[in-house]
Amino acid sequence: MSQGILVINAGSSSIKFAVFGNGDHSEPELRVKGQIEGLAGDPAFQVKNSEGHTIDRHNGWPHGVALSHADALRFILGWLRENMGQTEIVAAGHRVVHGGLVYDQAVRIDAKVIADLDQLAPLAPLHQPHNLAAIRALAEIAPDLPQVACFDTAFHRSQPRVAQLFALPRKLLDSGVRRYGFHGLSYEYIAHKLPEYAPNAKRVVVAHLGSGASMCAIRDGRSVESTMGFTTVDGLPMGTRTGGMDPGVVLYLMQDRGYDVKAIEKLLYKESGLIGLSGVSNDMRDLLCSDDPHAAEAVDVFVYHVLKYTGALTAVLGGLDALVFTAGIGENSPQIRERVCSKLEWLGIRLDEAANAQGGPLISTADSAVPAWVIPTNEESMIALHTRRVLR
Ligand code: ADP
Predict the structure, then answer these.
(1) How do the residues of the chain divide into helix, strand and coil, expressed in percent and rounded to 5?
(2) What is the distance in A from the centroid of ligand 1 to the CA of 12?
């Protein structure tokens, strides 16, 4: 019998999970990775082995049935018992979007932690309640299983105070209305991994370009600035989110165009970004092969903002020793990387087209003053690492 750590990333309509070995490797060893999608209706379960090959599927639930987080976790634990009987799950690590000002590292979950995280739910209403639902459900299903919360905000707690403050009245700042930053588990993984590639890189900009997208300035392995702030809607335009926008637009839409809070939320989080601009798709792959001019313009706006923030983050760092691309678009789209890097020659980045086409890891030429890298992120592995550390 060997030991395993269960990693859980619970959202509104899906639960993603992975099992890692509980050995001593610096990179936890993945055993399986899977998900149940469609919790609100027509659920589908899929699981892959460590090589990425699908080893099982299930979608035999009655048509239209919805699963609660508890139902889904019971199914996942049942599957693990039946199919991985030789692996004893000794702990569960959860991705939790918001740790507020208090949690600057992963923490063992108890009643006090749950109460604290509940209080933060209004700061991340689209994610935090679902993260907590899975934690509560698992506590009921397996009360003796230690659970650990790993936060998307924690890595950014090292940011200097000036980076965290909005220019708002003190009483609002003191009550927690601040810039937090997200995608922290991804950035922490890259910071943990980068020394293997570029041991001397001290000032690093990481572009996490996925359907959610943000960028982070890292100095000496610690976050000093990020493009997401109080919520996950700030910064870069994303698949369906606006990115940073003049808050006066929100006032105008509410005062003169009849938008209420729900309509604003839908607009900012679901109807904007690449889908809003293109009217075609929120998926960069679709936009890159579309001949619709609005699709091309959506890509232009996306690339423009990546460039703009690369400049801003480089200024914060006082120079740049490495640029890193990661996440779905960053890892898989040579075109987007090419479009960004070709406009960064002023910064000393010279793209190696062949290396870029092959996906790197190094995608800049030998004489590039600043190297550019593609490093696949692995938030689940980071959660497994934290969980192991907290357990011990
Ligand atoms: P998230 O974790 O935020 O859901 P991912 O990091 O998985 O997102 O990124 C998903 C996005 O990556 C997709 O929406 C798609 O736009 C983009 N993507 C994946 N592969 C490619 C590719 N080959 N070219 C361009 N974009 C891609």
Answers:
(1) 40, 20, 40
(2) 19
pLDDT, one tens digit for every residue, the chain (392 residues): 899 999 999 998 999 999 999 988 888 999 999 999 999 988 999 999 999 999 999 998 998 899 999 999 999 999 999 999 899 999 999 999 999 999 999 999 999 999 999 999 988 888 999 999 999 999 999 999 999 999 999 999 999 999 999 999 999 999 999 999 999 999 999 999 999 999 999 999 999 999 999 999 999 999 999 999 999 999 999 999 999 999 999 999 999 999 999 999 999 999 999 999 999 999 999 999 999 999 999 999 999 999 999 999 999 999 999 999 999 999 999 999 999 999 999 999 999 999 999 999 999 999 999 999 999 999 999 999 999 999 98
pTM above 0.85, yes or no: yes
What is the Cα–Cα distance from 244 to 249, expressed in whole angstroms?
Answer: 11
| Pair of tokens at residue 148 | 């650990």
152 is catalytic: yes
Please name the residue whose Cα sits nearest to atom 19 of ligand 1.
328
Which residues lie closer than 8 Å to 88 by C-beta, 6 or more apart? 1, 2, 3, 4
The residue annotated as part of the active site, out of 56, 116, 152, 321, is 152
Helix (H, G, I), strand (E, B), or coil: what is residue 140?
helix
Query: 50 CA to middle of ligand 1, Å?
Result: 20
Report the separation in Å between the CA atom of 332 and the middle of ligand 1, taken as the mean of its atom positions: 7
CA of 30 to the centre of ligand 1 (A): 22
Tokens of 135: 């934690």
Give the containing element (helix H, strand E) for 191: helix 184-197
Report residues whose beta carbon is within 6 angstroms of any ligand 1 atom.
Answer: 210-212, 239, 283-285, 288, 327-329, 332-333
Choose one of 332, 336, 375, 380 to mutate for the ligand 1 pocket test, by most ligand atoms within 8 angstroms of C-beta. Answer: 332
- What is the number of the ligand 1 atom nearest to the C-alpha of 274? 16
C-alpha to C-alpha distances, 148 to 95, 96, 161, nearest whole angstrom: 9, 10, 27
